[in-house]
Amino acid sequence: MHSVGPRTRGVAAVAAGGVVGAEIRYLLGVAFPADPGGWPWTTFWINITGCLLIGVLYTVLAGADRPNPLLRPLLGVGVLGGYTTFSTWSVETVQLAEHGRYGLALGYALASPVVATAACAVAVVLTRRIGRARWTR
């Protein structure tokens, strides 16, 4: 019997996290279905909150002395990678255009990455400030 190496543990962490993140996204989509031809709020907020959380995770892990090497694959790549969804955002943008909602499609196509990136940046800045306040006490 051989021992499980770091690569195998990393793959398992990504897979386990991906199941959790994708299931959360699926359940939110079922609970809050998109209105055909309307702004896809569920996907929009999933992507925004996912980017905000990845900003927090990135900052916490970058500031940690010795973070567990499985946290990034489990939470970042797995959970948050499975939770956020670039492909659904793309399909919903096309569907808006197919419904003749060209302005809404353009707005959604532009707003999603801009707001998601801003959420990530705000999370990084605030997490650093909170961390510094805690570290200087």
Automatic annotation (TrEMBL):
GO MF term list: fluoride channel activity; metal ion binding
Example of a GO biological process term: cellular detoxification of fluoride
Cell compartments where the protein resides: Cell membrane
Pfam families per the UniProt record, alphabetical: CRCB
Domain of life: Bacteria
Protein family membership: Belongs to the fluoride channel Fluc/FEX (TC 1.A.43) family.
Biological function: Fluoride-specific ion channel. Important for reducing fluoride concentration in the cell, thus reducing its toxicity.
PANTHER family: FLUORIDE EXPORT PROTEIN 1-RELATED (PTHR28259:SF1)
Protein name per Swiss-Prot or TrEMBL: Fluoride-specific ion channel FluC
The organism's taxonomic lineage, starting at the top: Bacteria, Bacillati, Actinomycetota, Actinomycetes, Pseudonocardiales
